[in-house]
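User: I'm putting together notes for a lab meeting next week and I want to include a structural view of one of the chains we've been expressing. I don't have a solved structure, so I'd like a prediction I can at least talk through. The sequence is below, exactly as it appears in our construct file.
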Amino acid sequence: MKYLTTTTYLVATLLLISCGQNPVPIDYGADGCHFCRMTIVDERFGAEIVTKKGKPLKFDAIECMINHLHQVEGPTDQYLVLISDYVNPGGLIDAKQGYYLHSKNVPSPMGMYLSGYEDKTAAEEKAKEQGGTVYTWPQLVNGFRTLSDTSAEKVNR
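Assistant: Thanks for the context. Below is the predicted structure for the 157-residue chain, given as structure tokens.
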């Protein structure tokens, strides 16, 4: 009986640990974008959502992640929202604390010209170099439709 109780406790603990709400590193060149299904290849633009149930959703671009938030999941259904820092690619940072550059001179995988930065100064320096506008997370999410229309116009010119 003691063996059964110990085994049950161990299995329950392992299940709780495995169902955690932790990000899963993006496997660049292998993972596919949850939104557009393209392979995620550029470490400067990756993004990830971890749902409240602990499911990681990976994206090849910030615009795919925001489209997903607006169209599929709703902006409040996620536990973690993460992006890759354009200056230090590969790792993931808190998207809600990040800064975003919209610049036609910094193309992103889906053509919306969005790049993410952990540091406001880095985003502003890139904007001085390349032109464009720096946004916070709330500004980006709330103004996304306008940016989408503007990007489409730039691409279609």
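A couple of points you could mention at the meeting. The longest strand covers residues 78-83. The longest helix spans residues 2-18.

User: Perfect, that's what I needed.
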